Amino acid sequence: MARWRWRRTSLGGETDRATFRALHNASLASPALREGLTSASAERSVRHLRALLGTPAAGLGDTSGLLAWDGLGGHHRGQLTATISQVAETGRTMIVDERTLVCEDGGCQVRQAIVSPLVAEDTLVGALVVGAPHTTGGLVRAADEVASWVSGQLELAELDLSRNRLMEAEVRALRAQISPHFIYNSLGAIASFVRTDPDRARELLLEFADFTRYSFRRHGEYTTLAEELRSVERYLLLEQARFGDRLQVTLQVAPEVLPVAVPFLCIQPLVENAVRHGLEASADKEDGVGRLHITARDLDQECVIEVEDDGTGEDPERVRRALAGDASMDSVGLGNVDARLRNAYGDDYGLVVETAPGAGTKVIVRVPKFAPGVQV
Questions:
Q1: Domain Histidine kinase/HSP90-like ATPase spans what residues (predicted)?
Q2: For residue range 8-62, what is the model confidence (pLDDT) as tens digits?
Q3: Are strands 247-253 and 290-299 parallel, antiparallel or unpaired?
Q4: What is d(CA 216, CA 288) in angstroms, rounded to the nearest whole number?
Q5: Within a domain: residue 2?
Q6: Which range of residues forms the domain containing residue 149?
Q7: Do residue 209 and residue 101 come from a single domain?
Q8: Are residues 51 and 115 both part of a single domain?
Q9: pTM exceeds 0.85, yes or no
Q10: Which end of the chain has the least Cβ crowding within 10 Å, N or C?
Q11: Nearest 5°: phi and psi at 327?
Q12: CATH number of 202's domain
């Protein structure tokens, strides 16, 4: 019989414990700093920066002055404004002594201060202030190192902001590609029912309103697959009002994948592309029927969505150019959707397109059920 003895694990010596404390404080400060340099983020992060440095006081400021202060010596805040502005202009660390930090409190622990610049993407954005009874060469180096780390977090915040702006611009571009031809035809189809079938005209008008409201909504980078497919259904109802029985649609969706988070407007453009390029040529013929199959399957840790048509197909080289973002390709957002999928989940999750002239087209979308940073 094996016998196990439990022993308390140890972080080792004082050096190991100090390292752990430093890493812990850095991890606590990081989330707020990744939001950028604001009053709120400075207030939430500065106490952890002070703990990281082990000093009586610390502050964070932008180019105009202090945003937050933690610890002793708060009465010195106003005396540091000019120095912070100077550091933000010159980019050089400055040490402030008793001549600037005038104080009548004999027991004040903040007699000197180190002001280190914060730089994000080669732009001076503010300063880290470290208050202490006196400064040493080691403390100056420590302040500069922490300021450099804070600058790195602020650069990451700027990258996150740039990424969000890019994603918003891509969605705006995708909205702009929603076919005016489709809108015109939808309204024309609705108008054709106004006299012959007023109830259906009213229902189609409501579907059109819901479709446009979803497509042009202003919030949320991600949505659920259920919401995305609901928008697809509205789009197809409007197209079927135009084509009638000449457009046949089959949807097969596993209930388990409906809550999966997907990039906003990642399926509807693929369906519109299939109708425009794959089916219109055959469905416009009197005896022609266009068939569209949409499936969403549960595949272990992934959700697989397929949009397949039996239309005219396409030259694979033209598809490659569309996926590469060639603006001359008349494709509704194919490259846009591919880029956003790769940005969200990595290069392993780009679009897969199977097509050939006369052989129809199948577009395959794979998304993980759970991915860091992806939520509705």
A1: 266-369
A2: 545 566 776 777 777 888 888 888 888 888 889 889 999 999 988 889 999 998 8
A3: parallel
A4: 33
A5: no
A6: 14-173
A7: no
A8: yes
A9: no
A10: N
A11: -70, -20
A12: 3.30.565.10
